[in-house]
Amino acid sequence: MSLTDKFDQVDMESAASPQHDSWHELRESLGQKVVATFHEGFPAEGSQPHPANVLTALKAAVQGHCTDRAQASGIANAVLVAWLQNMSPSQQTQTWGPQLMKAISLADLTPTGAVQVVEAALQCLKTNPAASVHALPVLKPALASLLLDNIPVQRPDEVKEDVTMTAQKYQVWVFRKVCQCPWRAEHIPDFLAFLGGLRLPDQLSTILKKTTSACIQAEAVDLPKVVGHIICISNTSPKAEALQAVIDLVDALEAAAAGKHTDERHQLCLHEGQILQWVRNKLPTNADLGQAWLKQLKGRATSYSAFKLSVLLIMSEALNRLQQPVMDLLQALVTSSFQADQQVQQSAWLASLPTIPGARAADLEKALLTCISNNTTCPAAEQGWGLLSRPIIRFAVGLLEKGSVKAGELADALSGEEESAAAGAPHVAAVLLGIKLLVASFAASPGMRESLLREVQGKLVGVKEEVALPFVAVLGILVHRHPKAVLQHANLLKAALDRFAFMTPTTALGVLVALQPLALLKKHIQAYMVGSSGVLRKALFSRGVAARLVAVRGLLYMIIQQLRTMDEGEAEDVMEADPELSCSQSLPASQQPSMSAGSGGVTLLHELMGLMRRSLTQQAPIRAALYQGVHAILAADPSVQESVLELLLPHFELFVQAEGPPLRLHACACLQDDAVIVQEPVDLLLTCVRQVLMLAQPRDRQVPDSIVGMADGDTTPSILRPAAGASQEASPEQTLQGHFSSLRQRLLSCELEDFGMDKDADWALTSPQGALRHTQAGLLLGCLEVVIEDVVAEATGSSGPTTAQTTGQQLGRLLELHDSLSSMATEGKHAKPKKAAEGPTQGATQKRSRAVASKATQNSFAEPSSYASVTSIEKRAPALSVSCLRHLLNAVLDDGLVADSETQEAGTSGVDSQASTHAELARSPATQTFILQSCLRLLNSCEPCAAQHAVVIGTAGDLANWAVAKQLLAPPDWGRLTVPLIRVARTIDDKGRSKGKGPGEKLPLLAVQCLQALLNLGRTAEGVAEVLQDVPTVEDHVPVASDTEASAAGQVISQHLPLLYQMLQTLLQAGRGREGEAMTHTLAFIGGLLPPALQQGISRMALKACQNADAQVTHAGASKALISLHLSTAGKQDMEACMRVSKAVEHVLGVNENPRTQAEHLQVTSKTGAATASNLFTHLEGLLHAVDWLLTGLAKMPSNSPSGTSTNSSHAQLEEASCQRLHSLAEVLSMSVACSLKGPPSEQIIKLLVTMYRLLKSATLLTKAPQKAQQAPPSPAFQSMVTTIHQQLTPSVYTFIFDASTHEDEEDQNQAPNAEKKARKAKKEGKQIGLLVKAIEEWEFNLIKLTRSCGINLMRHAKKSTNRDFRMTFKEVPESEPVEQEAQEEDVQDQSAAEEEEQASDQAKRSKIAAAQDEEVSE
């Protein structure tokens, strides 16, 4: 049967049906039957007619019933509606709808028919999701027909009532219905294409919400196609919102895929890479898109995911003009995130609040590292994620350049590299993040390694040391983790070594230490570093002292490393003989058991000898470095001791003499053009000789632990022993030993006058002769200390008891000489210089000395000499080793180094005997002062060099290299002094020496200073815990808060806090205010390292010390330090502490007398009241800053969050917390402002009040609802805060302003006239008071606006403000009030009279001033 025959049959059946009385019914019945016929017949025949033929046959079949075109269109509508209602996914006719709509003209569709088609299509979308996508092409032209007619549309409502609306509103209604329908994954792009074609305003957010939910529910989504449709939809919206919509969609999918299978996450990552590539291609033609989005991001508190950061980085790579803005935005983001974390860590109040939405340092670091790792995990998406390598490297380099961290801060950060980058100061954490990004980029992007190394190489020269050191650390980490990958770019490493002479000393040494592991792998790297034409050989002949100094240290380090490699057999590349290399580098490790071994070529021994011969002829700093490194080489290979002694012997003989003074000090330091030149560091030479002789002793003798670092219990034997007399020709060892023994004996028997050092000599540091004498005295003191160490070694050795009497007398003599020379130099350094008989004047001499000194330091990279003439005796580093100082400290604790045999026998027999010589020395205050001063100078000398050496050592790589670098380059192991030094300090404090002039007056202060220097070297909580971990604890007298979540370091420190508090109490009870102040500063330093929970224990200690009636704190500095400690470590109880201190200040300085007990008020006196108030105001300034930071963050949070969401709830909690905080601060300020303050405290309180009222204004604006939103009533916390301000703070502020002006007038009357001073003071005070009044009025103005919008009178408790400069003017008064008018007139007259009197007084004052000036002129 043909198609026409089928229609004819349907037509006849329909016409014969008696139930179709109207055309409408006939049309619907006909349409349904036609559709049913199509469904039954055509699939069986296996053919599908063309829609145009269907429509033609349909119209021909109903010609008897259709009289016009509209009736035919109605039949077509009926067919479409029936088709939509009966469509099935398995039917082949499901694609007829769009084709039929193409065949039907829009003019043929009636509004009623179009509405029916739309309703049927919506019903199909809702009930048939699988086939609903075929209804969308029918829905779009039907809506277009309605918009074309532009007549009211009547649609059925859910409550079965007809609703009439415009075509535009009907289109919006259809849009909402489509968004409510279920979307299948494969149909999402089709739905987006349909909705985008509607071009409705403000549709992007709704579409994005629906798209996100559909994508999350779907298993597989064509994400790039979806993103393309979203961007197309955004043509009707701002472009920045479209890009943000794409990012939000991807972030939502990332969050949903977090718990799914790895394959799904991998697929999502591939799609993200494709999107990034698409963004990279589209941005060059849409530059406004990037600029608009950057502008939208600035100033918003939002989190940054990995994809959002990747889009930012792609933008900087796609457009050059966006590169710098993006880098600035990212750097500001990193800095602000680290600052936010630091702010929260430092404030216990902020730490207890909900987290403010925004970028967090840990999340930011994780996101950046994810951007790098995606390049490795998704190789198929290399086009997208691989584009991020270059901008990430550029960003990381920028972080390192702008960090400018000190060496010590960088060393602490590198030591805890595995921890989060958020730990530490913001700029240090940013640098550490940059280091991590560079290291991760090197591992993940092989194609960018050369570019990365080139960036590192370029930042080693021509920059400050603070900028270069992070790049040195990067180089060291890369060499340690990826040596083979770094070796592939050896040309860049050689280029960096070529600039060796232009680097700073620490940078150059760090580069050498970092690259040394590569020298063990490849011989060409060794040749380039230490070959005959290597960079170190060239630097050894450089003109600059700094370059030669680094060359010497580098060569010594390389020799020691080669010896270690030879012993361990770790060389990975067996190197063949090469004329460019010495034998130490050309022979295999198995053939080099020692430095002197070798078959042909030059051995390591010859290399060392050549280095020593060259170095012994150069400047003093070069020789000092050689002396400090020789003992490490001898400890590594003792077989070369004889060769080293042969070189040291003739050099040592140059500075000792048999007649006259034992030392030729004039050959060690001299004057050249009135500038002091140190030619030989003889004290270091003597130390080196002693160490070499100790190592040259027979192997059955013990070796000093100061040389090879043996256990703490080892003894250091003396080298003073009789020389061998059997041999006629003495060996170099015996000769050198004889010289040392002779020098020791002669120093014991000489006098200071033999060296030309007496009290009558010129000791002034301002004269050339005095500076020279100070330098020579420092060298002589160092030699005396070396001999003291040798005597101490003999006394603590195996023969100590038998020679105790002799060594005690010798030690006493040496200490006497040392004390006399130190006192002489210390007392004479400030004396006036002696006038010379001949020569230039003192002024010309000083000018010439400065010129010579300036010429000598022209090298910008020159290392400052430790033997400069400006170095005073007190700051000189001692020549005593750590082991010797330990023995001396233990002598103080054990009542002597050793007891002689007679004393031991008397003690055994029970007979009382006189104390031994060593016991008397140990009990002597002079000896204890010498020991503590030596310890303090040693600790102070370690502090400036420990940080830089820590950075150099941190680049050494593995533990073995680190041990060698530490032995050669690090300062002394000061940590071994911890236990005996703290025990001695506690012993001295417990003795409770009374104040007064005496030999032991300085001991308590020295003990506290040593403890303070010892803990400061720890720098971090981990370092301080390492210092204190071996110190015995005491019984806890003050309860310390326990924190189960505290780190191990925090727990160790908290366990030792009672010991420090006991020492503080002992000092305060003895009336040692200065010492107590120093001890309080030590506790404050420790408190800054602890978390807030553990800080409260220190705060309670300070409070108890202030309230202790047995220890009255009369020292002003100690009182201020204790109160400051109580405030800074109060933690969550900071407002209680502030209120406590504020009451104490009010008790002393308050206008209204209110007597309270002394213990309640922390022993604050009138002498310390102003300083205590200043400390309180400084602390309050920090608390207000924390509130300001919180309010600023709240202002950036979105205020239109839905009710009940977590964001809205967190916002409300934070607002309430800020109001409560401001309430408490207002109570404290209202009490503080009621005090009589003068000078700086008065200025501080005015600034605090200005800040307070500005914060109140910010809190008020935060409470106000956005525009076009209904204002909610303010929270109870806000209303309570406003009431307290009105009733307590504001009246006190106006009273303070009035009292300040009255006090100024009184001062003007009492003081002599000084117009200029008064003008400056009035101008400054007027500006501050004006700012305060303006802040108050602005807050009250916004409060009035809030009152009008919320309907609650927030000004009901406010007092009318008064202005001290306010002048009343009166207008006409009604006649009904004559009495009041007369009173006002009298007031006006009185006021006029007062003004006239004031003007007359001012005129008289000006006349007197003018007359006085005229008299001065006439005179």
Give me the secondary-structure topology.
Blueprint: H1 3-16, H2 23-45, H3 51-61, H4 69-86, H5 96-103, H6 111-127, H7 136-149, E1 153-156, E2 162-165, H8 167-180, H9 188-198, H10 204-217, H11 223-233, H12 239-256, H13 262-282, H14 287-297, H15 306-318, H16 323-346, H17 348-351, H18 361-377, H19 382-385, H20 389-403, H21 407-415, H22 426-444, H23 449-458, H24 465-481, H25 483-487, H26 490-498, H27 505-519, H28 523-530, H29 535-540, H30 545-568, H31 583-586, H32 604-615, H33 620-636, H34 641-653, H35 665-668, E3 669-672, E4 675-678, H36 682-695, H37 705-708, H38 732-749, H39 768-795, H40 804-828, H41 842-856, H42 882-894, H43 901-909, H44 917-923, H45 925-954, H46 959-969, H47 978-990, H48 1003-1016, H49 1021-1028, H50 1048-1069, H51 1073-1087, H52 1092-1107, H53 1116-1128, H54 1134-1149, H55 1169-1196, H56 1206-1232, H57 1240-1263, H58 1276-1310, H59 1315-1350, H60 1378-1418
Antiparallel strand pairs: 1-2, 3-4
